[in-house]
Design brief:
Blueprint (H helix, E strand, L loop, with lengths): L23 H33 L7 H26 L2 H32 L6 H9 L36 H8 E8 L9 H10 L8 E4 L5 E6 L10 E7 L5 E7 L2 E6 H6 L5 E5 L4 E5 L4 E7 L4 E5 L5 H6 L2 H6 L1
Parallel strand pairs: 7-10
Antiparallel strand pairs: 1-9, 2-3, 4-5, 5-6, 6-7, 8-9
């Protein structure tokens, strides 16, 4: 049943129970007090509605994975800030030392990498670096290998050439004609008539006494003039051969080929001849003559080469000490 004002008969306000005509100020004040609260309620309701709508549309709270990623990013940011603060607190000297320390570590790293790569290439015979190969042999990481075929005339090879496979043969050059054109022939000696040919054992002892036995000593010819692939000789063998060869590497890396032909020792400065601008190669001998061997005739030739063909430089004794002292500059001065 509706309530009305007893004085004027107007319907009373339901919220206040007062007459809007008789008490207008009280009703207005009550309405004003209720409006902010109503607004807040409406806003909260609207927010809840939006939240509900978001959830219904697929919006969710952060997952554990996202939380971990967020924590990780935050930790990283904190660490970076600490590093920046630490660098800012460093003096100039500390910064310089830090820079050079990093530079040194980088250089060492690249040095180790380059050294390992070089050693691997030498080990698998991809490249030939005598110093590195010597180091690997001394460490027991690589076995010694016999030298490839060397000519038995220190200036040229006039021995038998291996027969080529196929339908043709190679005719060996005539030794007499060659030496007559390029040298003065002092003597010709049949290998089997020579009294100065050494045995394998004698050759090993002679070269060892001179300090030239660091690398394998090989031979390629028999006393009958038959050619074979380079074979390492034996310390205790009494077998004779007309020629022997080995090589020597000095401490500064210079490579020498050592020949022992009919008992005479000669040295070919390989490194020097490679870089030399001379028209002819240089060879070291203990006299002004050169001993050569021809497998076709099985004969030794003692000659004085023409300077246009071979330059002979004499030394008192061919041994390790002499070769160590004969640098490229020292050879030029002789």
């Amino acid at each position: 049943m509706a309530k009305f004002c007893k004085e004027c008969g107007t319907r009373l306000d339901e919220a206040t129970g007062l007459c809007p005509k008789c008490n207008p100020n009280a009703v207005t004040s009550q309405e004003q007090n209720e409006k902010p609260e109503a607004k807040r309620s409406a806003a909260a309701q609207e927010q809840n509605t939006e939240s509900i709508s978001k959830k219904s549309a697929g919006g969710q709270l952060p997952s554990k994975k996202e939380k971990k990623a967020q924590i990780k990013r935050e930790n990283k940011r904190i660490k970076q800030e600490k590093k920046r603060e630490k660098r800012a607190a460093m003096s100039r000297g500390q910064k310089v030392r830090r820079f050079f320390l990093k530079l040194l570590l980088i250089v060492l790293l690249f040095g180790i990498l380059a050294g390992g790569t070089t050693a691997a290439l030498v080990y698998f015979d991809v490249v030939d670096i005598p110093f590195v190969e010597t180091l690997l042999v001394s460490m027991g990481l690589k076995e010694r290998e016999a030298l490839p075929h060397q000519g038995q005339d220190p200036s040229n090879d006039h021995g038998d050439l291996p027969q080529a496979s196929g339908t043709f043969e190679v005719t060996p050059p005539d030794a007499d004609s060659y030496f007559e054109d390029n040298a003065t022939i002092l003597s010709k000696i049949d290998a089997n008539d020579s009294t100065t040919v050494t045995t394998e054992a004698e050759t090993c002892d002679t070269l060892a006494e001179r300090g030239l036995d660091e690398y394998p000593i090989t031979t390629e010819y028999s006393m009958t003039g038959d050619y074979s692939e380079a074979t390492e000789i034996s310390q205790g063998s009494s077998t004779k051969h007309p020629t022997y060869q080995t090589y020597y590497v000095s401490k500064n890396g210079d490579v020498w080929t050592i020949f022992m032909i009919n008992g005479a020792i000669m040295a070919n400065p390989v490194s020097y001849n490679i870089q030399s601008d001379l028209d002819a190669q240089v060879i070291l001998s203990e006299s002004n003559t050169v001993m050569s061997y021809d497998g076709t005739t099985n004969r030794f030739y003692e000659t004085i080469p023409n300077k246009s063909s071979l330059i002979v430089k004499t030394v008192d004794r061919i041994d390790a000490e002499t070769l160590e002292n004969l640098t490229i500059g020292a050879i030029d001065e002789r």
